[in-house]
Design brief:
The protein has 281 residues and is α/β, with parallel strands linked by helices. Helices cover 27% and strands 26% of the residues. The chain folds into three domains: 2-73 and 164-216, Alpha-Beta Barrel (TIM Barrel), CATH 3.20.20; 75-156, M1 Pyruvate Kinase, Domain 3, CATH 2.40.33.10; 236-281, no CATH class. The chain has a seven-stranded parallel sheet with strand order 1-2-3-13-14-15-16. Strands 4-7-6-10-9-8-12 form a seven-stranded mixed barrel. Strands 5-11 form a two-stranded antiparallel ribbon.
Length: 281
Amino acid sequence: MMEEQRLQTKIVWSLDRSSFSETHGKQIADAGFDALRLIYGRGNNESLGPFLKGLYSSTHKPSALMVDVSHYMQSTVTSIKEISELQYEQTVILSPLPGQGDIAVECPDWAKNFVSGSLIYLGFGAVVLKTLSVSAKEVRASVVQGGLVKVGMNVFVDETHREPTVFDLSGVDISPFRHVDIDYVVIPGISTSREVAVVRKKLSIALKREPALIVRVDNKRIYENLDQLLPQIDGIMIPRRELALSLDAASVPMVCKEIIQACHEKAKIAMIESDLLASMR
């Protein structure tokens, strides 16, 4: 009985575009895991094709391939000029251009992402900044909570955050995956049956075969609509750190248990994403 319960937990290896190369693809295939999750973001993904070539040229092909496009509309730190560890009340400059300012940030819409007086969460709260001024070329901010800044950190502004739509996801280039068997596609928190149906139709037309659809429960509205959403999808992914920015952080562990139980009752896949200890900050 204990052995059967142990097999219910699977290991998913997550990689972002910094790990996409043909050589790395061959090495990854030989490592062994239950599923490989490719985090597909905005910007330069030219190395994805060679990575997939290396992955599938190996004798050990992945048992399951998961493509996660839920990060496509997120803002992220792309480079750091000099400063890596920020101190309380330090002034820093964020810029949309690499090499300009202290921290370069890639975001879907720079003008709409930052507003004066708002809090900017780097790494889901590992570092917190307060916006002092905003222009087309830079954001000047003061450090409210210091810490280490790393490339790839999520940049979240609660005052301007909006949930992505099917229209936003239409810009995702899925051509590298046309001749690859994708088992799962992870999308951000789309909460209506109509949107789910549109996504399924697009995937069935564009890909070799229709993959299982996984929706991220990444905000309060998706969580509250979960009963209506679960019958329309194949599973959910729970990003604890994002939920902690939308719900009372102390309630997140119990919410996760509740969501997993609901998935078990309806025979749906349930996955926990992100570092568990860091999400308790």
